[in-house]
């Protein structure tokens, strides 16, 4: 368990959260694509602050090629690997990312932290919502030339397997094994950035309180057949996979989240029955919380003001489809 404390950034409203999350994602993207990845991992293990990690990439001679990626040979080989959950987080990404002109979509590999086993056209589908609010908007964006620079790789479950949670989980795990090398030579896949929400009951991804899945440390992708809310059948990436990521973000908004955040932030002990708390404690030095004021509701915790690292210049005209 990490001895470093998570960072908790607070914001006035939904739009402020969305802008800050997008900025942080671009900062991690640039740190991964334009600096030594092994160095970033080493710094992360030493609990070095992300601002210093980002400064390392800016001090790197290759950093000047951030605005001209083609000039950086290392950039050509690297991919920015992220995992996202669904629900309100997708709306946050829609609001924050699509208006930016510095998201290098063609270098992104996007995975899903979890999925409800429903058809993609169902309003309960995480991929379906991401497709509707993000991926389907690409061709009308004026902020990025997709035909020239490429689309992101998006990895989702096999829709044909939604009637069998175990088979669906096995199939998605095979995708991870293929893309992150062989399972017998890679103990766990390493995501560069993992984005999660936190529900009012403390569940995150499709890991629920008191679930047996919280004790599953062997599988990369877990079948879920007894979700207490929404579609019962799901798949979810496991706790070890999530905690092994280089950086993790919890994005939380709304006054209904205040009681569970109070329980997570004010508890000194690890509550191994509460998924969000488990990740909060086990990956503490790598975790950042982006939370609106309503969700904190006067909690007495160490809050921070987020410092934008890649704000959109006011001189840049951004045309957003939103």
Structure description:
α1 packs across α5. α5 links the parallel β2 and β3. The protein is α/β, with parallel strands linked by helices. The protein has twelve helices and ten strands. The protein is globular. The chain has a domain at 102-306: 3-Layer(aba) Sandwich (Rossmann fold), CATH 3.40.50.
Key features of this structure:
Rossmann fold; 10 strands; alpha/beta; disordered C terminus; globular; 322 residues; 3-stranded antiparallel sheet; 33% helix
Quick description:
This protein is an alpha/beta fold and 322 residues long. Helices cover 33% and strands 14% of the residues.
**Pattern of helices and strands:** EHHHHEHEEHHEHEEEHEHHEH
Strand order of the largest sheet: 1-10-9-6-2-3-5
- Give the assembly state of these chains: single chain
Q: Structural class per helix/strand content?
A: alpha/beta
Please write out the topology.
Elements: E1 7-11, H1 14-33, H2 37-45, H3 50-59, H4 73-77, E2 80-84, H5 88-97, E3 108-112, E4 114-116, H6 126-133, H7 146-149, E5 153-154, H8 165-179, E6 193-197, E7 221-224, E8 234-237, H9 239-243, E9 247-252, H10 258-266, H11 275-282, E10 287-292, H12 293-296
Parallel strand pairs: 1-10, 2-3, 2-6, 3-5, 6-9, 9-10
Antiparallel strand pairs: 4-8, 7-8
């Amino acid at each position: 368990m990490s001895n470093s404390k998570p960072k908790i950034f607070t914001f006035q409203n939904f739009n402020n959260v969305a802008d800050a999350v997008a900025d942080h994602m671009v900062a991690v993207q640039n740190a991964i694509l334009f600096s030594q990845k092994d160095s970033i991992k080493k710094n992360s293990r030493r609990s070095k602050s992300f601002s210093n990690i980002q400064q390392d990439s800016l001090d790197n001679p290759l950093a000047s090629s951030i605005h001209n990626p083609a000039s950086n040979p290392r950039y050509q080989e690297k991919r920015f690997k992220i995992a996202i959950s669904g629900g309100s987080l997708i709306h946050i990404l829609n609001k924050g990312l699509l208006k930016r002109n510095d998201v290098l979509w063609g270098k992104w590999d996007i995975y899903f932290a979890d999925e409800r086993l429903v058809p993609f056209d169902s309003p309960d589908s995480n991929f379906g919502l991401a497709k509707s609010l993000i991926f389907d908007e690409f061709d009308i964006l004026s902020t990025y030339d997709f035909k020239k620079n490429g689309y992101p790789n998006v990895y989702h479950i096999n829709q044909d397997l939604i009637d069998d949670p175990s088979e669906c989980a096995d199939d998605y795990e095979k995708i991870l094994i293929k893309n992150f090398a062989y399972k017998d030579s890679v103990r766990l896949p390493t995501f560069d950035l993992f984005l999660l929400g936190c529900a009012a009951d403390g569940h995150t991804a499709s890991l629920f309180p008191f679930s047996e899945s919280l004790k599953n440390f062997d599988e990369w992708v877990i079948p879920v057949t007894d979700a207490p809310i929404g579609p019962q059948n799901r798949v979810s990436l496991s706790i070890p996979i999530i905690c092994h990521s280089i950086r993790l973000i919890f994005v939380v908004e709304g006054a209904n989240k205040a009681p569970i955040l109070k329980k997570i932030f004010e508890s000194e002990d690890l509550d191994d029955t509460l998924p969000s708390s488990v990740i909060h404690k086990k990956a503490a030095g790598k975790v950042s919380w982006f939370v609106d004021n309503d969700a904190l509701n006067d909690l007495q915790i160490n809050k921070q003001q987020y410092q934008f690292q890649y704000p959109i210049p006011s001189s840049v005209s951004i045309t957003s489809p939103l």
